[in-house]
Write a structure and sequence with these properties.
Length: 540
């Protein structure tokens, strides 16, 4: 078959069903064959960065390899920020990047593509010859899945119409297997836990499977411990009586009091970075048991008293068995008094600051959370609004939450949201963004969502400013004018792009927009006007 047909067939044989991309000279025939010959789905994006971000979002919600494609030169350089984001998100993504012909020395789009890719932290693989294409694709797929980062496969344009003998890929990946803990390490950990009187069980992103959740709750009940999560494991224990929510800099007052008074933290699948530990303050005076399948994660940010390499569910259940054998009694730290304090606290315990022209961001988030279906995919772009969004907007499980600020950039939410919707079909996607992030990375791809019929609700918190910079000027009693913008009205813009747009300046208009969302038949954008001087941090 022809080379471009072999590429399409190899992708399909690796289980790839969906590819996001922007067409150009070096990839158009591959994507035509992917749809026509291999029966796959090619989803066109407006910007190359959006395509890579869509592949990232798809991988996050589907649990599968995300795949994107671009052509050469400027198409690849347009993906740099998205590649860095995906690297730091530890997401398996394959990017098929066309390349100019070696003999075409004067091509305007020539650039050393390996040198563009490697500084992002992504891996690079070269299609060496037409006859090696299946092996090269297999290597790139394997690396992306095992290394949990993007791998860019460089595909020279001059190979496209060469004939190749196609042989299906032979190598596959071994499924994930539970790793039994080392008995000596387990003995040290059980000793620490048995001696504790005020333990807390903490789950990170690496302990969010249904099996891990159930095992951690069994352990917590066995030792009488409340449970908490990192941000990336958001809402894992939501609804449980002793759920403290997010641990660290985003903790509410009851959770913070509880964690600070604990004498033992048992962490599963969590990196324990400075945000989770609030610069290690939540670990002061507490012993730490750290469990992770990745040995490199243990002691990376916070030193542990006992580290265990192993599968979260298996380790937790084994600890329970050993505690039962030793007849260790529960601590009672997860007390009725604590349950009462948790039940009594409310995210709505504040004075609403809405006016006839602006909406209090906290009130808006609570109403949005109630109005939209609980079974949803949740995506946050970057912006000052995000600190309230982390704690006031919820999702049914951590895999339904797509984090887009690993690189600290704004504008990465829309692409991720589009891909996430295809990774979790049947679930509506809620994207929360700011005005700056939407203008930077969301505007063009909103029409992509319209073209592909995505069930998407975009909530845009519009303070007509770069809020993080605005507040810095205010804090130094300086004029913030250069951080402000006279944006267009985003409601009519969204409608012009083929969606439905609503402009909200007060709570009555917000309720009307949320009512209209219930009967949506296309992507919706709600432009909510907020006061840049009234964007409070959680707890205020």
């Amino acid at each position: 078959m022809l080379f471009h047909e072999a590429v399409a067939r190899a992708l399909a044989d690796h289980g790839v069903e969906t590819v996001f991309g922007v067409l150009g000279d070096a990839n158009l025939y591959m994507m035509d064959s992917f749809q026509r010959v291999a029966g796959g789905s090619y989803l066109s994006c407006s910007n190359e960065a959006g395509a890579v971000l869509a592949a990232n979002g798809y991988a996050r919600t589907s649990g599968r390899l995300g795949v994107a494609t671009v052509t050469h030169g400027p198409a690849l350089t347009n993906t740099v920020t998205a590649l860095v984001e995906s690297v730091r998100d530890h997401t398996p993504v394959l990017l098929l990047a066309g390349d100019t012909a070696v003999v075409d020395r004067d091509n305007f789009q020539n650039i050393p593509q390996r040198d563009v890719v490697l500084p992002t932290g992504a891996g690079f693989e070269q299609v060496r010859a037409p006859q090696t294409v299946v092996e090269d694709i297999t290597t790139a797929v394997r690396r992306a899945c095992l290394e949990k980062r993007p791998i860019v496969l460089d595909v020279p344009v001059e190979f496209q119409w060469e004939e190749v003998d196609y042989r299906p890929p032979e190598r596959g990946l071994v499924p994930h297997q539970a790793v039994a803990p080392d008995p000596a390490a387990l003995d040290r950990a059980v000793g620490v836990i048995a001696a504790a009187r005020r333990p807390v069980v903490l789950a990170g992103r690496g302990a969010t499977s249904p099996e891990a959740r159930a095992a951690l709750l069994r352990l917590a009940e066995r030792i009488g411990a409340p449970v908490a999560t990192t941000l990336r494991a958001k809402d894992l224990f939501r609804g449980e009586r002793f759920d403290l929510g997010i641990c660290g800099t985003l903790s509410h007052e009851v959770a913070l009091d509880t964690v600070l008074s604990s004498d033992c933290v048992i962490a599963f699948g969590a990196s324990l970075n400075k945000w989770t530990t609030a610069e290690r303050s939540v670990l002061e005076g507490a012993r730490l048991v750290h469990v992770d399948i990745d040995r490199d994660s243990i002691n990376r940010f916070s030193p542990s008293d006992a580290g265990i390499v192993g599968d979260a569910a298996r380790v937790a259940d084994t600890i329970v068995d050993w505690l039962d054998e030793a007849e260790v009694k529960p601590t009672g730290f997860a007390s009725e008094e604590l349950a009462g304090r948790l039940a009594a606290r409310s995210d709505a315990d504040f004075t609403d600051l809405s006016t006839s022209e602006t909406v209090d961001i906290r009130t808006a988030m609570l109403r949005i959370d109630r109005a939209l279906p609980e079974d949803r995919t949740l995506v946050f772009d970057g912006g000052r609004f995000i600190f309230n969004a982390f704690t006031r907007l919820h999702c049914p499980e951590p895999s339904a939450y797509v984090h887009t600020v690993n690189f600290g950039s704004i504008g990465l939410g829309m692409g991720n949201a589009i891909g996430a919707s295809f990774g979790a079909p049947g679930r509506p996607t809620l994207l929360v963004t700011g005005d700056g992030g939407f203008m930077l990375g969301g505007l063009a791809e909103f029409n992509t969502a319209v073209r592909h019929g995505v069930d998407l609700v975009v909530v845009l918190f519009n303070d007509a400013a770069y809020g993080a910079e605005h507040i810095q000027f205010r804090n130094k009693n300086m004029d913030p004018a250069i951080s402000t913008f006279d944006w267009p009205d985003f409601g009519p813009v969204a409608t012009a792009l083929g969606g439905r747009g609503y402009t909200v300046r007060n709570l009555e208009q917000l309720d009307e927009a949320l009512d209209a969302v219930q009967t949506r038949d296309r992507p919706v954008l709600i432009d909510i006007r907020i006061d840049p001087d009234k964007v409070s941090l959680p707890g205020h």
